[in-house]
Design goal:
CATH superfamily of the domain at 189-413: FAD-linked oxidases, C-terminal domain
Strand content: 15-25%
CATH architecture of the domain at 189-413: 3-Layer(aba) Sandwich
Bound molecules: flavin-adenine dinucleotide
Structural class: alpha+beta
Strand order of the largest sheet: 13-10-12-11-15-16-14-17
Shape: globular
Helix content: 25-40%
Distance between the termini: 44 Å
Largest sheet: 8 strands, antiparallel
Oligomer: single chain
Number of helices: 12
Radius of gyration: 23 Å
């Protein structure tokens, strides 16, 4: 009582709880100013791109958040040498549109256009990848410019192979990426075919698919015992593709379904009725839009998630060895069914999977040693989600899952250290050299990166 009165008197102000400082650079000079040693910037500094990561890798409760989306110029499209140079805050959607004006496209197809070039390099970013090319966005970086933790400029190019490998998927721990040169290519048309199979059938073919050149994405619906396959091959006639079906598909998947499911979760009280409706709508979308409308495409037009900003969807991704995925797909179905029985929680969106080609081009690549399948569980339902992801993490660990530092919810630090092992040791040593005062290190990342 006395304390309350003292505070009211105005003489004893209680400290207000403040969050991190929000810094919004628009130029290289701003970035240097915020990071140089003499600056009064609150530490640690965490760079934030499109904010689409599922873990706290892009956040900090104290210190400063460096919003990179204002550093977003397209510097040069070099159509003769098939490269593009951009600033790191540029959104993927703008990059894709800019390249298309010159008849060029990214080497892979990457969903979720709101993310930034810097975020897609500093964290694993992947999509359906045809052939054996690097599955990650960062696989196609040929040079980058970085501001170190002390505000110094560092240039890295393909001749510094090991350094480039460390900076790909470095989660903003080695420095702030501010300019990037990427390898691109002329727009190429692929055919997209679709199949609907049971999970059992999928288990019998997933190994063959993982070993083949076909680009694939799948939607796994455990409660319907269905897998919808999207298979991509370079066998279509050039130019024989239309953007409208892809736009419809994107609109259905990233806008309509999350909104409708969120509403159904609110207004339909009986779970069995609600989930029947939800699964019917998911299947209808797969059957009608994806299977019938989308036949051919290009990486330039097949990017999805234009309108999606992650606000309506919770997700958690884990990588599993492709060689074992036939067993893991069946186990995942059982896990989901038993979770529903035990906790009454289930994801309302299908789980989505991609193949990640073996890629040792990044020190912290989740598929450094072997081809993996990235499986993303997603839902619009917040109640019960946090418990679900803890069980999912347990399931993933049991089945040899490799955590993605930016996308695996409820990952355990000890498991990250164990799986990335000696590669993480090398990364940590380099981090300590480049940031000896831990100016970029947040508590979340310190668990395994200190
Ligand atoms: C619904 C949903 C679905 C998703 N599906 C997929 C998917 O299918 N495939 C996939 O690969 N990913 C997926 N993601 C994950 C996410 O899009 C990727 O992790 C992406 O790479 C993050 O990009 P961002 O710009 O949003 O970066 P942020 O989330 O903002 O940051 C990611 C990391 O990069 C660091 N960083 C950001 N900018 C810089 C910079 N300029 N310099 C240095 N470090 C930097 C951050 O500190 C952080 O550690 C999904 C996300 C959502 C919300």
């Amino acid at each position: 009582m006395l304390a309350t009165n003292l505070r009211k008197s105005g003489r004893f102000a209680s400290p207000r709880l403040v969050g991190p400082a929000e810094l919004r650079p628009t130029s290289l000079n701003d970035l240097k100013r915020y990071l140089e040693k003499e600056s009064r910037t609150a530490l640690p500094v965490r760079p934030l791109g499109g904010a689409s990561s599922a873990t706290d890798c892009n956040r900090t409760n104290a210190g400063s958040i460096l919003h990179m989306t204002g550093v977003d110029r397209v510097i040069r499209v070099d159509a003769a040498n098939f490269t593009v140079t951009v600033e790191a805050g540029l959104q993927l959607q703008t990059l894709v549109e800019t390249l298309a004006e010159d008849g060029l496209e990214l080497v892979g197809s990457f969903d979720l256009q709101g993310r930034t070039v810097g975020g897609a390099i500093a964290a694993p970013c992947f999509g359906p990848c045809i052939g054996s090319a690097g599955s990650y966005f960062s696989s196609h970086v040929v040079a980058m410019k970085v501001i170190t933790a002390n505000g110094k400029i560092m240039n890295i190019d393909a001749s510094q192979k090991n350094l480039l490998a460390a900076f790909r998927m470095s989660f903003g721990l080695l420095g702030i990426i501010y300019e990037v040169t990427l390898r691109v290519r002329p727009i190429r048309t692929f055919s997209a075919s679709h199949r609907r199979v049971t999970v059992d059938k999928f288990a019998t073919i997933v190994n063959t698919l993982s070993l083949s050149d076909v680009g694939f994405k799948f939607y796994l619906m455990p409660y319907r015992d269905r897998v919808y396959l999207d298979l991509r091959r370079y066998d279509a006639d050039p130019g024989n593709s239309y953007a409208t079906p892809w736009k419809l598909k994107d609109w259905g998947e990233s806008t309509v379904l999350p909104h409708v499911f969120k509403s159904l979760n609110r207004i339909v009280p009986i779970d069995s009725v609600k989930y029947r409706l939800i699964d019917n709508i998911s299947e209808a979308t797969q059957g009608l839009v994806n299977s019938r409308l989308v036949q051919n495409g290009t990486n330039a037009m097949s990017q999805s998630g234009r309108r999606h900003n992650g606000r309506h969807t919770f997700y958690s991704s884990w990588c599993f060895p492709a060689a074992n995925f036939s067993m893991i797909a069946l186990a995942y179905k059982e896990f989901c069914v038993s979770m529903l029985e035990r906790s009454r929680y289930r994801c309302d969106l299908p789980a989505v999977g991609y193949r990640l080609n073996r890629d040792a081009g990044s020190l912290l690549s989740p598929s450094f040693d072997e081809t993996m399948i990235a499986l993303t569980s997603a839902s619009t339902q917040s109640r019960g989600w946090e418990d679900f992801v803890i069980d999912l993490a347990e399931f993933a660990e049991k089945w040899g899952g490799i955590p993605i530092i930016s996308q695996s919810r409820a990952l355990r630090a000890a498991h990250v250290i164990q799986t990335y092992s000696s590669r993480l040791d090398i990364f940590r040593r380099l981090r300590r050299q480049l940031d000896p005062e831990d100016r970029l290190l947040s508590p979340f990342l310190a668990q395994f990166a200190q």
